[in-house]
Amino acid sequence: MALDKDFEARVAALKTLAQSERLHAGDLKSFYEEAMRVVPVHEGTDAIVLVGSNGNQAANTRRPFGENLSQFGDPDFIRKVIESRRPAVSNLFTTRVVQRPVISMGVPVVVDGVIKYALTMSLSPAFIQRLLEQQAIPSHWLSTIIDANKIIVARTRDMDKLLGKTASPSLTAKSAENAEGWWIGQPFGGEKSYVAHRRSNFSGWTVAIAVPVSAVNRPLWQALGFMIGGIVFFTLVALGIALLFWRRILSSITALLEAAKTRGGGPTPEIEASPIVELDQVRKEIETAAGERKKAADRLQYEALLVQKITESVAESIFITDSDGHVTFVNPKALDTFGFSAKELLGHSLHEKIHDRHPDGTPFPRGECVFAHTRTTGRVITNHEDVFFRKNGTAVIVECSHAPLEADGRPIGTLLIARDITDSRRQSNGGSFQGTQE
User: Does the pLDDT value for residue 259 go beyond 50?
Assistant: First the structure.
């Protein structure tokens, strides 16, 4: 994501520069000066190069304007940009001018309806390396970035030795087989690892991360060893206590019987019928209590599922807020209507998200909101017409009801149900927008 974001930002800058009036007027010297001002704006940029459709460089910010320039170092890349008429990202290649490896992004330049140039921005692999290092990947993990030719462009270890080298056979094969996936192998020639990779649809480059199997499995084996050791230890302790205090077993079972009658909690152990009357009574009481608890749990699960189905299928937006007005529940209809994700709403002030301004755009203080009074007065609001706002800023005319929620006699929040009536109001008003807020 970080790599694609950086590439796309550079492509956007190139598209803007490609619309330069100086370039379209054929004033290459002025365009060269304009490009020189763009270079330092984008971190890591090595040069901006204007290349003709024949592959010859027309201007290169790395060299003085007017100097004789050779062909572009990767003519296949220029051909791809021009023939596809689309932005593209090159593979790692060596420049003809300064003889060092670079990567280029390119966009076609259309002049009078004809693609006359390809405008490229070159950057050093060192910038890609810094971008990878900024992701704070743990030192015992290993990550690499390879271009569409499976050549290593950046790597968290041994980069000085492996820049420009072909990736391992397993990484090469797996990245060619699927755009994304994971497997267990030794893609970097080291210890056995869990490896995940993702290939960018935009650039064709692949990012892979390997985590040693030992680093993943060690905590699991430690936990299992601790659990087994604990079981053995407590089993031995229990046997010792049973041998020492066997005469007290009968009284302990009687006490357990009474506890089972009053609690009936916990999982049901498999207890066979026993000739000891007290033990058999314990078994029966536990089974009875477990049966009642299962019925209650099934009933609760049914009720929860019923509420979930209702809130998912209703045509109204449903919000539940806590005593501070922060969202604690929102149904799918509300997310669809207002364009937010659940993460963007849960825990946030509902007023600030959808009700923070009047229809004319002026701020709407929370203290003046009619819904804020519900939490303080306990008054129920029904069939109230108001204007809310979507995430993208567009207004929604709603008819809503607002009621306080209580638990054990104390207020815990509010319930807001809103129905979108924007279309019907606009039709009744002849297509004009009108909204009221108290």
Answer: no
| DSSP secondary structure code for residue 119 in this structure | E
Say how far apart CA 401 and CA 403 lie, in whole Å: 7
pLDDT band at 187 (very low <50, low <70, confident <90, very high): low
* pLDDT-derived band at 345, boundaries 50, 70, 90: very high
Residue 224: its pLDDT value, please? Answer: 74
CA geometry: angle at 293 spanning 287 and 298, to 5°?
125
Neighbours of 112 (CB within 10 A): 6
pLDDT band (50, 70, 90) for residue 438: very low
Round to whole Å and give the CA distance between 261 and 270: 18
Rounded-to-integer distance, Cα 304 and Cα 313, Å: 14
71-85 in b/e burial notation, b at 16+ Cβ within 10 A? ebbbeebbebbbeee
Nearest Cα to 144, choosing from 70, 230, 205, 53?
Answer: 205
CA 273, 277, 282: angle at the middle one, nearest 5?
A: 70
Q: Give the domains, in start order, of the chain with CATH numbers.
A: 2-123 (3.30.450.20), 127-214 (3.30.450.20), 217-309 (no CATH), 314-428 (3.30.450.20)
Rounded to two decimals, the pTM is: 0.47
- Supply the DSSP string of 177-237, one letter for each residue: H-SEEEEEE-TTSSS-EEEEEEE-TTT--EEEEEEEHHHHHHHHHHHHHHHHHHHHHHHHH
What is the pLDDT confidence band of residue 255, given thresholds at 50, 70 and 90? Answer: very low
Name the amino acid, one letter, at 329. Answer: F
Q: Is residue 123 helix, strand or coil? A: strand
Burial class (CB in 10 A: 0-12, 13-18, 19+), 349: middle
Average pLDDT, stretch 134-141? 82
Q: What is the pLDDT of residue 370?
A: 81
Helix, strand or coil for residue 436? coil
